[in-house]
C-alpha cells in the first residue's frame, strides 16, 4: 500500500481499520465456551499504527462473542516480554493469552496448554506451516501456541540501493527486482564473499555496512543466518557440542575480514541501533525487518526511498534468513481457556492476517505460505516502489533461528545467553585465537546443556 | 476510663507488639526471599530434584563466572574508593561554607543520589550512545578523537564505574557531612592553639572522630555496589564480551533470561558469604571502637 501525496498515513490506517472491520463481519463459528473475560499480553509493534489495528480487530471479536478483551502491548526492548512471561509463569497469574517469540515457547512449554486442535484445524484449512515455526512450537508431540497475527518477521538484508550501485557497482534492484523475474545466475553471485567485497568498497566511501555483535537479539539473528550458510553450528541437531569444527573456524575467519569494514560501535549496539544508524544515512546496509524502512519513511524520507530489502547473501552450504516465529500461547492458569482457543483460531483467519500485514506495511510475515498470495502489500509498499517485495521470502532462502540446528530447548538457551555473538566478538574484538574462543564457547555450552 | 489489659500494661509486651509490623516486613521481604533463594539454589535446572551444592560446583568450573567474580570485586573496590574520596572532599568543602548557604549546595549535591538510577543512567546512555554519543560529538567539535565508551572493554568498565560513582558519591557526602558536624569545635580550637596545621587537624582529629561512620558507610556502599544491577543493565547489558557483568546482571542473564533459575540463584548467593564476613569484621571493629570511646 503505497503512501502517495493523496494517501496519507492516516487515510491508509482508516482503510485498514475498515478492512479489519470487514474481516470481523466474516462468518465465524465460535464454540459454546466463549464469553467472559480475556486478557492478552502481546508484543508492542515496531511499526507505528499497527497496535491500534490489532486492538480494533480484537475489540470487535470481543463484542461479537460477548468476551471482554483487554490488551497490554509489551515491548521486547530490554527483554521486557520475556521478563513479564517469567513473572507470570512463576506467579501463576497474569494474562490468559501471551505472545511468545520462538525461543520463549520451549522455555515456558510446561506452563502452556496444548492447542493441538486449534493449530491442526488451521493447518488443515490453510496448508502447511513453515518448518521453522513447527520446530519452535510443536514440542514433545503437542502444539504449545497458535500462530500469532503480528510480529512474525525475518532479518532481511536492508541495503541502500544508491550506495551499493555507486560504490560497490551492485544494482540490487536488478538482482532482486520487485517481481518474480529474477536471474538465478546473478542471484547466485550474491554471496557473503561478494557482500564482504561490497562492504570494503562502502567502508572506503565512508558508508559502511553494520550489524550488531553484542548481547542483543539482532546479533543472534544475523549471525544465525551467516553461521547456517557456512554449515557452522555450536550445538548439532542431536544436542552435542559442535563448536570445534572447520565450518566454525571458516565463518570466524570470514567475520574477522568483514568486521574490519564495520564501525567499532557494533559491539555495543542494541536492537534499535541499526535502525537509527541506517535511518540517519550513515550506513549502507543492515539486517532487519522493514521497521527501519517504515520509521525512515516517517523520519527521513530521503533515506527511505533508497532502502531495498533483499535476500541474504549465500554461503558455501546455502542461503539462510533468520526468522522469528511468534506464537500466542495460553497459560495453564488461564480461567477462560475456551474463549482463548476460540480467539487463537480466529486470529489465524486470512482476513485478520491480511489486515495486520497491511497495517504493519508488510512487516508481519505469515507463517503459512498460502497467505502470501492474499496481499500485494510487499509489491505496493514504498517508496521505493517494490522495495519490500523481497522481504517476503521469494527465492532459495531457507529460514533459520538462533541456535540452529540444536533442539529447541537448547537453541533457546544458546540464543538467550548470546553465546554466538560473544564467540564472534572474542575473535574479532578481543583478539582471541580461534582455539581460545571456541574453547570458551564449549565451556559456556556445557552450562547450556546441563540437566 | 477504660483500663488496658494486663498484658498490654507490661512495657516489653507493648514493645514486641509495636515491632510486629517491622518483623513482618523483614520476614516477608528479606527472610523469605533469602531462604527461597537458598532453596532454589539446591534444585536442578527443571526445579524438580534436590541436587545439594551441585549448582555451586558447576559454577566453579565456568570461566565466565570467575570473570564475573573478578569484575564485581574490581567494580566495587574502585567505585567505593572513589565515592569515599569524592564524598569526603565534597563534605569538607560544604562544611567550610557558612551554615546559611549550605542548604542549597547540599540539595544540589544530592540530586544524583535521589534520581532513580534507571532513569539517570538512561541519561548517561545518551551521553555514551555507541554511534551518536553526545560527549563524542563535543570531543570531535574540538578535533579530539571519539571515545568508544560502551564498545571497548576498558572504556565500558570505566563508564559503568563512572556512573556508579556519580550516583553513589552523594551518599558518602551526606554521611560524612553529618559526621563532621558532630565533631566538637573545641577540639579544633585546642589543636590550633597547640599549633596544629590543617593536615594535622584532619589526620588527628577529623579522621579518628568519623572513623566509625567511614566504616559503616563503606560497608553499606560495598554491599549496594556489589549488588548493582540497573547501571550495567541500561548501559551495556553485560557487554562487550561479558566484561561488565556483575553478580546481579549475570544471575539475571543465567536465571531469568536463560531460564536456569537455580543456577541464577546460586550466582546471586555467591556474594553472600563474602559480604557476611566483611560485615562481621567491620561491625566488630565499630563495636570495639564505640566501646573504647564509651
Number of strand segments of chain B: 0
**In percent terms, what proportion of residues of chain B is strand?**
under 5%
The biggest beta sheet of chain B is recorded as: none
Number of domains of chain B: 1
List the chains of the largest interface with their residue counts.
A-B, 39 and 34 residues
CATH class of chain B: Mainly Alpha
How is the largest sheet of chain A built, in terms of strand order? 2-1-3-13-6
CATH architectural arrangement of chain B: Orthogonal Bundle
> Span between N and C termini of chain B?
45 Å
Q: Rounded to an integer, what's the Rg of chain A over CA atoms? A: 21 Å
- How far apart the termini of chain A lie comes to 50 Å
* Known CATH architecture of the largest domain in chain A: 3-Layer(aba) Sandwich
Helix and strand pattern of chain B: HHHHHHHHHHHHH
Fraction in helix of chain B: over 70%
Strand content of chain A: 5-15%
Can you tell me the number of structural domains of chain A? 2
Number of strands of chain A: 14
Main sheet of chain A, how many strands, which sense, barrel? 5 strands, mixed
Low-confidence stretches of chain A: 1-10, 16-29
Helix content of chain A: 40-55%
Written description of the protein model:
- Chain A is of the alpha+beta class.
- Chain A is 45% helix and 13% strand.
- Chain A folds into two domains: 9-152 and 324-377, D-Maltodextrin-Binding Protein, domain 2, CATH 3.40.190.10; 154-323 and 395-449, Periplasmic binding protein-like II (D-Maltodextrin-Binding Protein, domain 2).
- Chain A is globular, with a radius of gyration of 21 Å.
- Chain B has helices at residues 6-9, 11-41, 54-60, 63-96, 99-114, 117-128, 134-141, 153-181, 185-193, 198-226, 230-235, 247-257, 261-293.
- Chain B starts with 5 loop residues before the first helix and ends with a helix.
- In chain B, helix 2 packs antiparallel against helix 13 and helix 5 (99-114) runs antiparallel to helix 8 (153-181).
- Chain B contains 13 helices and no strands.
- Chain B has 294 residues and is mainly α.
- The A-B interface holds A 78-79, 82-83, 86, 107, 214-216, 263-270, 273, 276-277, 280, 282, 412-413, 416-417, 422, 425-426, 429-430, 440, 443-444, 446-448, 450-451 and B 44-46, 58, 61-64, 130-132, 148-153, 156, 233, 236-242, 253-254, 256-260, 263.
